[in-house]
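Re: the 245-residue chain
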Amino acid sequence: MTNFPTLTVVLVGPENPGNVGFVTRAMANFGVRELRLVGEDHRQDQFAQMFSVHAQDILDNAGVFEDLGSALDDIDLAWAATARGGRNHSVTRALVPLFELPDPNSLDGRIALVFGRESTGLFNEELALCDLAFTIPASKDYPSLNLSHAVSIVLYHLFTRYAKNEPRQPYEARAATFKEREQVYKFFDEVVDQLSLKEHKVPIAKQVFRNLLGRAYMTGREVATLTGLVRRINELVNEHKKSDD
């Protein structure tokens, strides 16, 4: 049974093939069927197959991609799990608690749960590809979780909170797609590039805007309206610069 037909689990650079097998079992336990592997193909590894047990079909059907960008190409929302939260001054690390993630079945579009390497997690440039980063509550003395344990906790949380026997109805308003969000980012970036900001603050301003939109779960109509506003602001900034020249 597939409780979450729109969910995809993405493992970036898994270093332990056995963990990949354990992840497929957790996916089968909680009704998620699609797995994507970024980096080395572990599907034929003896430990991955041995530990997948009755979820070997998930392992056999897993997609394999060279990088995270290609793995997310047809994904509408990407939620990254990370333990490296940093403090408030690190805007690229603004995290959403696990319990604040919405019901995947209520959102229109494909959603990826992205998990990083056992040793180093996700790199900053990989986190930047995701709409938001979330964290799993754990002891401050040892916040890093085993990969398969992290996947199990996240899927257990979503299952116990959102999985129902009867189909859930999606919101009437369609969620914004990845391409729609990229359009508003494009216009906002152009505005930022024309402002008199210190060079080191430019990427921070752009990332803050992405963080806000990524955590907002905006509808297509909302993003379309925001795109129009940001585009008009961009036009006004251009007109003002031309009049000053």
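The two ends are 64 Å apart (CA to CA).
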